[in-house]
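Hey, quick one: can you model this chain's 3D structure?
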Amino acid sequence: MNNRGFTLMETLVAVMIMTGGLIVIGSSWSSNFMRIEKARMNTNMASLLERKMTETDLQYRGRPLAEIPEEDAGEFEGDDLKHYRWELRSKEFEIPDMTGLIAGASGSSQSTTAPEQGEMMALIARTVTEYVSSSVKEVTVTVYYKSPRAKAKEMAQSISTYFVDYSKPMSIGGLPAGLDTGATGSPGGGQ
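Sure thing. Here's the predicted structure for all 191 residues.
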C-alpha cells in the first residue's frame, strides 16, 4: 500500500496560488468598495446641491437682487452630513460690450445713413448691456465634501442659476425710464 501524501513543495505551490487568488479578490473588493463610496458621495453632493439651490431660490425669489448676499456659507445639519459644507457666491451678470463690434459692422455699409445707424445700434447694445447687468444676478452654490479617512483635499461640486428682476424699468439713451416717447400708439387703441 502506497499512502503517499502531499510533498512540502506541492503544499507551498498550492498556498502560493491560493494567496495570489486572495490578493486579487481583496484588491478587487477594495476598489469596488471605493467606487461605491465615491458614487454615494457624488449622489449625496448632487442631492445637497439641489436642496441648497431650492432653498436659495425660495428665499430670494421675487425679492430685490440687492438682498442676495455676495458670499454666504454654512454646514448641513445632521450627523450623516457632518463632512459636507456649502458656499454661496453671487455676482452681477456680465455680458461682453458689443458696441464696438456693432458700430464696426454698421460702418462698413455703403449707405449714407450708416453712421447714424451705427450710433443707434451702439446705443441699443449699450442700453441692453446695462439693463441686463443691473437686472440679472448669477448665483453659484458649491457643496464641499471632506472624507474623514482620506488626507486629500476637499471634493467640490457647483451649480449656478440666474435671478432676474423683471420689474426693473429700462431707460433708453438717457431718457427717463418708462417715458412715453410717442413712438407707439396709446394702449387704448386710439389713433
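One thing worth noting: Confidence is low (pLDDT under 50) at residues 179-191.
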